[in-house]
């Protein structure tokens, strides 16, 4: 099983954590760039996972399907309730939104000069406020919602996208997660 991605991606990091937790054998190909993802994945994004199933080579092209595959292979539960799925999708929305803000900024477009991006930035704030009031675990075992949220918050901190100071409960949550060995082991680094 091969996981393609890069170290900073919160989507990739969550998959790596799940693989570590599962104990499954895997290879992490850390230097996956746009060209390789374009060649190997129809969605042209990371992460993607290559594996063998029923004697055939297969590819999963989204972190959500990768996580489900990993959890099922390991006999673990993945998003057991509708509420869990909704919270997971909410975190994914926040990650996708911040990724877009990050990439647009590289091209010179910012919330200050594009109204659409202002709405996107507001989405981040309202979403984080929702999680600031959530009942999050203080120690392992962590749910996939909590892992995804921590991967997002860790990425925000790593890239210095914005300050998390307005969310003291989320900062405390992230500090707790920082002590979790699979989270520590997958700390983002620039290649």
UniProtKB/TrEMBL annotation:
Q: Which residues cross the membrane?
A: none
Do you know which Pfam families this protein is assigned to? GST_N_3
- Which keywords appear in this protein's UniProt record, sorted alphabetically? Transferase
The name of this protein is Glutathione S-transferase
**What's the source species' lineage?**
Bacteria, Pseudomonadati, Pseudomonadota, Gammaproteobacteria, SAR86 cluster
For this protein, the record's SUPFAM superfamilies field holds: GST C-terminal domain-like, Thioredoxin-like
Please give the coiled-coil regions recorded for this protein.
Answer: none
InterPro entries, A to Z: Glutathione-S-Trfase_C_sf, Glutathione_S-Trfase_N, Thioredoxin-like_sf
Q: GST N-terminal domain location, by residue?
A: 1-78
List the source organism: SAR86 cluster bacterium
- Please name the GO terms that the record assigns under molecular function: transferase activity
Going by the entry's taxonomy, the superkingdom of the source organism is recorded as Bacteria
């Amino acid at each position: 099983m091969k996981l393609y991605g890069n170290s900073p991606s919160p989507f990739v990091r969550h998959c790596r954590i799940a693989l570590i937790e599962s104990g499954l054998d895997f290879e992490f190909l850390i230097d996956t760039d746009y060209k390789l993802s374009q060649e190997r994945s129809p969605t042209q994004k990371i992460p993607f996972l290559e594996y063998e199933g029923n004697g055939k080579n297969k590819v999963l092209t989204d972190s959500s399907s990768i996580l489900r595959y990993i959890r099922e292979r390991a006999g673990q539960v993945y998003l057991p309730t509708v509420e869990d799925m909704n919270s997971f999708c909410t975190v994914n929305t926040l990650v996708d939104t911040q990724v877009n803000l990050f990439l647009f900024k590289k091209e010179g477009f910012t919330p200050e000069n594009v109204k659409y991006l202002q709405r996107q930035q507001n989405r981040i704030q309202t979403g984080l406020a929702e999680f600031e009031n959530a009942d999050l675990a203080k120690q392992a075992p962590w749910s996939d919602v909590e892992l995804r949220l921590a991967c997002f918050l860790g990425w925000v901190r790593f890239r210095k996208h914005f300050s998390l100071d307005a969310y003291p409960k989320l900062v405390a949550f992230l500090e707790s997660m920082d002590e979790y060995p699979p989270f520590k082991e997958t700390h983002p680094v620039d290649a």
